[in-house]
Amino acid sequence: MSEYNVIGKSFDKVDGISLATGSALYTDDWKVNNPLIIRLLYSTEAFAEIIDIDIEEASKMPGIVDILSFMNTPDTLFTTAGQGFPEPSPYDCRIFDKTVRYVGDRVAAVVAETEKQAEDALKKIRVTYRSLQTNFDAEKAMDENMPHIHGKEAFSPISAPYNPEKNLAGQSDFSYGDIEKGYAESAHVTEHTYTTQYVSHCAMEPHSAQASFDEKGRLIIVSSTQVPFHARRIVSHVTGLPIRRIRVIKPRIGGGFGTKQEVFLEPLVALVSLRTKRSSKLVLSRKEVFVSSRTRHPFRLKLRTGFKEDGQIMTLEMDALMNAGAYGPHALTVLSNAGSKVLPLLNKIPNMKFSGKSVYTNLPIAGAYRGYGATQGYFALNQHLDIICRETNQDILEYIKKWHIKEQETSAVFEALGEGKEGVAQVVKSCKLSECIDKGAKAIGWYQKRDKKIETQKDVVRGVGVAVAMQGSGIPLIDMGSAYMKMNDDGSFFLFVGATDIGTGSDTVLSQIAAETLQVPLDYIHILSSDTDMTPFDVGAYASSTTYISGGAVLRCAQDIVKQIIEHGALMLDCPKEELSLHEACVINEKTGKSISFEQIGQHSFYTSKQIQIQSGASHVSPQSPPPFIAQFAEVEVDKKTGKVHVVKFVSAIDCGQPLNPKLVEGQIEGAVVNGISFALTEELRFDKSGRALNSTFWDYKIFTAADIPEMQTIIVNSSDEDGPYGAKSVAEIGINGPAPAIANAIYDAVNIRLFDLPFTPTKIMNALKATGRG
Asked: Which of 298, 358, 602, 699 sits between 20 and 30 A of 375, alpha carbons compared?
């Protein structure tokens, strides 16, 4: 690989000092003048029509400025999903609705001078409901006798399969080959059902937004958002205020993981400020975040395969049923990704079918979550491969290396299935998955531990398991990012990007791309991101698109700046531009050795001859979505007396193309792994028979902390993808896909029980052991 000056080096995050010292401003820190405080009243009914909202007593209380409900707010339907326009998610949501569809749905908002006044007034509002028949079971949602959770007025803005009269929030299907012929040619047929649960994103910073006005009367929204440009468009749609009258600013973000791809606070603070002509502010409590923001979609996946004696899969059928909850943001796209991001991995299967349905229930709203459907799909596929290999007595590592997609290969799935529509034909140009498998296996001690059932103490047995995955780098021919740069008179540069750093380090990585292209130190680049007035358009932080798509825009922009610098240097050195090159913030004549600094060029361009400011803008969209690849290995201990699983060591070997910043790559992978282990072992948002959340606090909802983290090792397997900036591919999501199936396979290796239902609690393990007579 080429030797770079900035690329491939582990620079500290450019915002690291401000984050570490607490000087970075989050939304709740952003000062606005005397804001009104908004507090929300939520439904206590899972499905009901609101007959009356009595606000008489509440409205007379001190400090109450306004009380909003369906009776005095716009009836506009929209989607809260921050996706490209037209959104593939159904328009089934209003700011407030006469019908509530889950416990925690919005009923009203109190606008007051102080938070206490708002909270006191909430207690005085009296709501009369007419209860409706509920449905909490996704399997029954489409039955004829089930209630329709949404009416006929809800609609899909694109020609997507959507039918509220059947509680269908989205549907995705494709097939190729001859399914039955494949089964006829098989020696074995295996079918299993895998289920995943409701979980919360648990970002450290709760959702928050505020609105105010500038000196020109324009609406300024500061929001903890992953998608500022989509937020601006959706606010415009809901309020009727033109986009040109709205500015959205993203400050520092305390984690998102997909939940802040949703636009459900911004329209409300905008509406309050427009009604009152004052600043307004809304910060959710942790309980509100758990119940009334967004969750990960629960899935039921049936996987049926026909395979030969040597394990070759002749037919694979995946039947996916996804619980969208009460509304349908991302209902189609997450569902599609359970197939489109998963099934291309095994591209040599001649007959394949994917059938997916996303349905409404009277449970909390699910939305985007890191992994975005692929996490659920890989939970099924990786266990299924382990089952096939054990049934045919094969080494699963060699099996995967034989059958996974390789460089210069394609898959029919790429073209058949995209995110909510048909996909795009693609060829994999870089893939080091086999090398990842080999290096990960060595690090975990695979062949010394597999099938050994080592007992570390009485009734505590160790096992190892593996899972593999691929993901993507943006949505091909949909995601677009832009960048703008200008040169200062000291030879430094300002870089403006719409890309949204939500703690991922994208500000740092994009600065590295610019610095490498311009051949300057990293501190010559000063980046401003995510202000819809100041920065160019970008779709935002989702679909693992930032490094690849936004980075591609930065690269194009910087390359044009280089051309201009060379042209100005040729003028100053009085030589042909072909003789010039860049080196250490200077333009050098390769023939004469003469050079001039960027500072000299900056000053000359500003003040002397042919006066211009060197500047450029560029956008980038790609027909490709180069997949990163990962092999992940878990070593676990299973206590047969208690059912407790302890992850001893976890190894991830990642091919993300050229790692632009290895330290940040490791951080992304290890953060995703901890997230995934917690998903596998402890996390589950649970509900009573009335649909009320039972564990909406961190006291009752268990996530992994620093004390729970096992020994982790991340191995970066360098490759280079010709379509990525400096050969880079994505890395942010893929690491969460492997922990659950790797742990499941390791549990089987230890104690020979197969768990198909997440999370793997001690109770489930003890029940499985008792069923085999070994508990």
From this structure: 699
**Top-level class of domain 32-132+207-283:** alpha beta
CA distance 328 to 676: 24
Residue 600: predicted pLDDT: 97
Alpha-carbon distances of 657 from 34, 266, 629, 654, 662, rounded to whole Å: 49, 37, 9, 9, 11
Question: Would the CATH topology of 16-24+480-621 be identical to that of 295-475+624-771?
Answer: yes
CA 704 – CA 670 distance, rounded (Å): 13
User: Cα separation of 227 and 248, whole Å?
Assistant: 10
CATH class of 16-24+480-621: alpha beta
Radius of gyration of the chain (CA): 27
User: Which alpha helices (DSSP H) does 148-201 contain, by range?
Assistant: 179-184
Handedness of CA 705, 707, 709, 714 (dihedral sign): positive
Domain boundaries in the chain?
Answer: 16-24+480-621, 32-132+207-283, 295-475+624-771
Query: What is the Cα–Cα distance from 509 to 507, expressed in whole angstroms?
Result: 6
Pick from 416, 385, 387: nearest CA to 403: 385
Contact 304, 384 (CB under 8 A): no
Cis amide prior to 62 (ω within 30 degrees): no
Closest CA to 741 of 631, 628, 638, 644: 631
Which of the listed CATH numbers 3.30.420.130, 3.30.70.120, 3.40.50.150, 3.30.365.10 matches domain 295-475+624-771? 3.30.365.10
Give the pLDDT score at 2.
59
Tell me the average confidence (pLDDT) per consecutive run of 10 residues in the chain, 775 residues long: 86 94 95 96 98 98 98 97 95 98 98 98 98 98 96 89 95 96 98 98 97 97 98 98 98 96 98 98 98 98 97 98 98 97 98 98 98 98 98 97 98 90 92 98 98 94 98 95 97 97 96 98 97 97 95 98 97 95 96 96 92 97 96 98 97 98 97 98 98 97 95 97 96 98 98 98 96 77
Query: What residue spans of 682-724 are helical by DSSP H?
Result: none
Through-space distance between the first and last CA atoms of the chain, rounded to whole angstroms? 54
Q: 629: alpha, beta or left, given left = phi > 0 and alpha = psi -120 to 50?
A: beta
Contacts of residue 60, Cβ cutoff 8 Å, sequence gap at least 6: none
Q: What pLDDT, on the 0 to 100 scale, is given for residue 775?
A: 61
- Closest listed residue to residue 244, CA positions, set 253, 233, 254: 233
Query: Cα(305)–Cα(313) distance, rounded to whole angstroms?
Result: 7
